[in-house]
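Table 4 source record.
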Amino acid sequence: RKGIEYLTEKGKIENTPQSIAGILHEENFDKDSLGAYLSEESSAEILKAYVNSLDFADMDFDLALRKFLTCFKLPGEAQKIDRFMKNFASQYYETHKGE
């Protein structure tokens, strides 16, 4: 969290969910820290932007879920896991709804 705040304060990235999600994809962040950051309620829009930037096209459900789960470590709390899975399900559906 502090690193993202620093980057936005210094003008290195815009303070938008899409910009923050982009830097989270580009940099090699610790998976535990990334999961903890994205699981915070205050990061709900960033989580949505992060998941929406993942490409699940031409992937079966199990491969897409595997790809999704390799990006970060899921938090241990059921409510937080639910938030991740709802975002994944929404993105997967949007990607495959015409099939």
